[in-house]
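Take a careful look at the protein record below. Let me know whether the structure tokens fit the sequence:
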Amino acid sequence: MNQKQKPVAVFDVDGTIFRSSLFVELVELLVAEGVVPKEMQEMYREAHKKWLDREDSYTKYIDAMVNAFDTHIKGVHYSDFAEMSRKVVENQGDHTYRYTRNLIKELKKQGYFLLAVSHSPKTILDQFCPRLGFDKTYGMIHEIGPEDRLTGHVADKHLILNKAYIVKRAVEKEGLSFKDSIGVGDTESDISFLELVDRPICFNPNSNLYRHAKINEWDIVVERKDVVYEI
């Protein structure tokens, strides 16, 4: 297959491949290792509890953690940030879903260009995604200021948040094709790129993505314990 004609396979990462959130695990390790103050947890503790008690959404919990992270990451040396990212992947990098892990392997064999698009920091994604065979990874790029310390800002954040834009840009830049393309995501933030591909797969979808998938007759796949089934 000619490189310029490779079909693209697009994957979200957190909750789609990784069985937790790389961002969450990184934040908790930063706290545990004393890289950021423990008081930072107070900014998302209530939102976390409400999610665990199913009184509020996972999205609100993550938004609270992102706010805490953006507030306290300023001034952290990039080497510490990178080392904590490495540790998370070293200790938890194999905590993946069987369905998506196997799908990635199969698509790789078929000659697909594997593209990961995530809202987790690119620093940790660059540790995690190559292990699975991804060709390109997009994520949050945290700016580095004087003395190699993080500024607390994300470069071109509005672009990274638009997953459809990122996918279109990657397809054009890499000379890929949407013919026979596949996309896999788990929340409504993935809808924009799932609408671009020939075969959208909603894997362990949240309620918003599930409703959208049912209306549009997209594939819905659920992995529960050691069972994988389609709805």
About this structure: The two ends are 33 Å apart (CA to CA). Residues 58-72 form the longest helix (15 residues).
